[in-house]
Amino acid sequence: xxxxxxxxxxxxxxxxxxxxxxxxxxxxxxxxxxxxxxxxxxxxxxxxxxxxxxxxxxxxxxxxxxxxxxxxxxxxxxxxxxxxxxxxxxxxxxxxxxxxxxxxxxxxxxxxxxxxxxxxxxxxxxxxxxxxxxxxxxxxxxxxxxxxxxxxxxxxxxxxxxxxxxxxxxxxxxxxxxxxxxxxxxxxxxxxxxxxxxxxxxxxxxxxxxxxxxxxxxxxxxxxxxxxxxxxxxxxxxxxxxxxxxxxxxxxxxxxxxxxxxxxxx
Length: 266
Known about the structure:
3 domains, alpha+beta
């Protein structure tokens, strides 16, 4: 039996599909549906990010961001050397199931003298769209701008890109939705002030651990250093206070107090 090239129909498990996409907007749902069908017409083989932009008719950065949002939530990115490709686990599994099913049927036909199954309708299938040439850089301009603004770039740019566009299932947002490049780079750069380069966290780690949330609650290292120069011994943090001691007295600074007033503990 020759290789099976295409199947007309892709089975859709409606209950599961609705449950998994209830949080999507109508536009995002359309993108997801279009990408699933495109993946199926490609014989469930990996497709490139650029192909996804073309099949979804993206003509703006906003459209590309929506496509990337759907890709990172519902599709699996390729390994390091093929990281610019995507597959959907369910589509691949269903395609493999049908392929094996028809191979078994063909073998049975041979043994029983029944005419082999042929893909008679394949001539009527629409050809797979040929994507327009697009630059192979997978990093969109939002992330590129952010990366360029980091004073210290540690760790994998690729892993940082994945974390930047990873969908938070609780909020339905990505980091790229929450911050501009200026906002996020400013928080990151401020947190690394005074820290030796080798102790700066990888940017992907910083993103995955949501360390931007500590920006307003962390006492900056230079404040602690100033207190040490004044003869105060830093004892560490307790709840929302940085604690110090001097001359037998205990002091604390509320990390939410922008004036950093020293409080004598009774």
